[in-house]
């Protein structure tokens, strides 16, 4: 099966570009367009989850779609609790900043000051490096066989960090960006040492309770949690329970739960400058490398400053986006993977911002001469960690990253294909002489271009290093652990 480094998404139809809407035409008009979009996402993409859109703290749309539990047919609502996956990271970053303001830690402290058991090779790694994914420490979720062999085990913090402590750094700390769950896991350990409390208790007492986020916390399998969604995966038309994951493993990198309503409260707290000083907020919102700041991707969209993060974990995909200058906030939480949460969130934001957006529509499969498939057979590098292999079997074109089950590519034209099993789209690219030089992959609202590899040379993908970004245009959450 084709599983790529991102929160996966359904494909929309040939794009129907909606003309720029007037964001000032009245609340009723905005609400109508938001509802129209989500009705299409529900009908065409079979979206399953909950959504909230707010303007200056006031909800324009807050609704659940599909089921929180398929066995008992319990519907999703705005109050349904979802695993947040890597949206957790912004709360971990806030906790670190709270402790920094109290003098319990310094952002430029070497992590060995708080975790003396860390190896000597990590001596140049600081807390700031962990916050910005620039530490160079290998990500445990990127280790070969981690999900198959380790993810169901109740590993201690020491055992989990032990998986990477003896590996060499991937680069000099501070010199590069590489998305890294190990770094945020280590931040949770530092928060516990510096505060004298558990990570779970510190966030509850210092963030959730002060902000009135009564439906947020650390997701553990044991306690009865009213309103908790179950996580599922979709394979073709089949929906089945997601694989078990011990929630001690994502920890401060991805183990929190919340509701879209509580996330809207979080957005208002950020807008009002609660919990930390303006100076700390400035640090939190300042990107270091590749647009990544402290637990947030910070950039601009068509002239609108944007702060966002995505997440993906077994059975759940998540996306939050803020447009602070416009007072716009969107949260989309899904409990069936793949789910196009990033695409949906950005389109809903576009409705409110008056930007063009695309309404989901069905897309037709067409017949083409199978002989053309021979042109596309080969290998394509999606990222340093992943190579996509395209093969022909009879009259079918199939593809998958190395080592994964193949999925069929169904043509919508001679160059464009749907991968319906995982809700992706592939377009093959040709040069001026007609040679196939690469492909474009669209999945989860993310567009990725892959160059075709020269199969006369020996080229291998480097070990997977976790998802590369987790962002609303698809950067988030490929690995299933946060």
From TrEMBL:
<feature type="compositionally biased region" description="Acidic residues">
    <location>
        <begin position="473"/>
        <end position="482"/>
    </location>
</feature>
<feature type="domain" description="Peptidase S12 Pab87-related C-terminal">
    <location>
        <begin position="367"/>
        <end position="441"/>
    </location>
</feature>
<dbReference type="InterPro" id="IPR050491">
    <property type="entry name" value="AmpC-like"/>
</dbReference>
<dbReference type="InterPro" id="IPR012338">
    <property type="entry name" value="Beta-lactam/transpept-like"/>
</dbReference>
<dbReference type="Pfam" id="PF00144">
    <property type="entry name" value="Beta-lactamase"/>
</dbReference>
<feature type="domain" description="Beta-lactamase-related">
    <location>
        <begin position="49"/>
        <end position="350"/>
    </location>
</feature>
<protein>
    <submittedName>
        <fullName>Penicillin-binding protein 4</fullName>
    </submittedName>
</protein>
<dbReference type="InterPro" id="IPR001466">
    <property type="entry name" value="Beta-lactam-related"/>
</dbReference>
<feature type="region of interest" description="Disordered">
    <location>
        <begin position="447"/>
        <end position="482"/>
    </location>
</feature>
<dbReference type="InterPro" id="IPR021860">
    <property type="entry name" value="Peptidase_S12_Pab87-rel_C"/>
</dbReference>
<dbReference type="Pfam" id="PF11954">
    <property type="entry name" value="DUF3471"/>
</dbReference>
């Amino acid at each position: 099966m084709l599983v790529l480094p991102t929160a996966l998404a359904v494909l929309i139809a040939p794009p129907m570009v909606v003309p720029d809407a007037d964001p000032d035409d009245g609340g009723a008009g905005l609400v109508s367009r938001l509802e129209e979009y989500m009705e299409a996402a529900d009908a065409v993409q079979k979206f399953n989850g909950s959504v909230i859109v707010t303007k200056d703290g006031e909800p324009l749309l807050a609704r659940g779609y599909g089921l929180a539990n398929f066995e008992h047919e319990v519907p999703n609502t705005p109050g349904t609790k979802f695993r947040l996956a890597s949206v957790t990271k912004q709360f971990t970053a806030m906790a670190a900043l709270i402790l920094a303001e109290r003098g319990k830690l310094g952002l430029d402290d070497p992590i060995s000051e708080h975790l003396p058991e860390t190896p000597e090779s990590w001596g140049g790694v600081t807390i700031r490096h962990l916050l910005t994914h620039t530490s160079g420490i290998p990500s445990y979720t990127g280790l070969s066989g981690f999900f198959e062999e380790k993810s169901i085990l109740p590993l201690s913090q020491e055992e989990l960090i032990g998986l990477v402590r003896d590996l060499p750094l991937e680069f000099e700390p501070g010199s590069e960006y590489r998305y890294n769950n190990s770094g945020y896991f280590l931040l949770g350990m530092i928060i516990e040492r510096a505060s004298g409390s558990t990570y779970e208790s510190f966030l509850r007492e210092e963030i959730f309770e002060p902000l009135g986020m009564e439906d947020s916390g650390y997701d553990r399998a044991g306690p009865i949690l009213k309103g908790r969604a179950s996580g599922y995966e979709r394979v073709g038309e089949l929906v089945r329970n997601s694989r078990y994951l011990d929630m001690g493993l994502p920890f401060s990198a991805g183990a929190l739960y919340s509701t879209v309503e509580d996330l809207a409260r979080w957005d208002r707290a950020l807008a009002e400058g609660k919990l930390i000083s303006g100076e700390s907020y400035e640090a939190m919102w300042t990107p270091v490398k590749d647009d990544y700041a402290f637990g947030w991707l910070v950039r601009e969209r068509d002239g609108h400053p944007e702060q966002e993060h995505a997440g993906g974990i077994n059975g759940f995909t998540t996306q939050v986006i803020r447009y602070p200058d416009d007072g716009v906030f969107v949260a989309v939480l899904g409990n069936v993977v793949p789910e196009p949460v990033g695409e949906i969130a950005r389109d809903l934001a576009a409705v409110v911002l008056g930007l063009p957006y695309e309404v989901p529509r069905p897309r037709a499969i067409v017949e083409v001469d199978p002989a053309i498939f021979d042109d596309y057979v080969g290998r394509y590098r999606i990222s340093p960690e992943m190579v996509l292999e395209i093969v022909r079997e009879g009259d079918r074109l199939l593809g998958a990253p190395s080592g994964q089950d193949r999925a069929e590519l169904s043509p919508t034209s001679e160059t464009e294909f749907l991968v319906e099993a995982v809700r992706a789209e592939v377009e093959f690219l040709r040069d001026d002489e007609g040679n196939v030089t690469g492909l474009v992959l669209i999945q989860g609202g993310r567009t990725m271009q892959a160059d075709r590899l020269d199969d006369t040379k020996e080229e291998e993908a480097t070990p997977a290093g976790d998802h590369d970004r987790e962002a609303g245009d698809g950067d988030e959450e490929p690995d299933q652990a946060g």
